[in-house]
Amino acid sequence: MRIMGLDYGSKTVGVAISDPLGLTAQGIETIYRKDENKLRQTLARIEELAEEYGVEKIVLGFPKHMNNDIGERGGKSLELREKLERRTGLEVIMWDERLTTVEAERTLIENKVRREDRKKYIDKIAAVFILQGYLDSVYVSGGQV
Prior knowledge:
- 48% of the residues lie in helices and 25% in strands.
- By secondary structure, it is α/β, with parallel strands linked by helices.
- A five-stranded mixed beta sheet has the order 3-2-1-4-5, with helices on both faces.
- Helix 2 (72-88) links the parallel strand 4 and strand 5.
């Protein structure tokens, strides 16, 4: 069973997919859009990828403030969750994404990716960290993916 991880931003959505065993996450794509409020093409692309990879569940990054409050971005993520569930019929799990972008940036710097090139990869890498965090938590707890 494959699981999709999403890092939802105002202009991009980073996408990661698990291996068939649900052990590791791989970044596959960054979806770009011109307007934050125009989601039709973004949702269509997510649906296409879910079908292509045989995805059975989606893990959506849930941005919270460090004090655990849910701000504007968190609210938009909850709205996206509803739209994804309606469109795909898949379960969408909200996953705390605090500091995943910082971790992704650090990884790109450590791998000597040039500053101007980091923007191309950061959302996809953040999606990998979101999905891998979920996969690790399920594996460690001994639960089913």
